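Hey, resending since the last one bounced:
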Amino acid sequence: MTRDPSEPSTADRILDVAEALAQTRGFNGFSYAHIAAELGITTASLHYHFRGKAELGEALIARYAERFAGALDAIDDEGGDARDKLTAYAALYSGVLDAGQMCLCGMFAAEYETLPKPMGEAIVRFFDANHAWLTHVLAEGRAHGTLVFDGDPSEGAQAILGGLEGALLVARPYGDPARFDAAAKRLLAPFARSVGASSARRAVEPAVTRLT
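The structure tokens again:
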């Protein structure tokens, strides 16, 4: 019997379940038995598609990183100034929280010391890619006059990336996305400053209102 191409493959279904588990429990919080029970298949079938949990973890990060990169490309394609891009970037995180989950690589980063080396390296590449994108946005905003901030764009990118990941973690136990939104507003506001007081208000507002 030929599989309907519109239906997800077994490997995709395994990744979907594993990702949902990882984003709520962490990598060490689930086993192949959990996935097999959810899908109604044997663990032998899981090992056929992913030899071990380490290989499954690498596949999870690769797929997540590819989707995240696609989301960043979509933000770029939408145009808008650097403030709009920062707002859209923060919205990627709030969307994950709204779904009752966490950033996959953020969850894995908390377990970094216990993960296989290839997974750890893949997590670093994910954050490096995000840092590079944010650095470019900040530099672009400064060059065009839509962002006025102190310090180097690379350092600012580190602050935004670390701040959003941290805000996501802190908001999670409260089950309150508004906590994340408030933190994201505070985090982004200094990067949208302008020279004059009146123009500063106009610069900050577009960068934060769409987070709520």
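The two ends are 49 Å apart (CA to CA).

Sorry for the duplicate.
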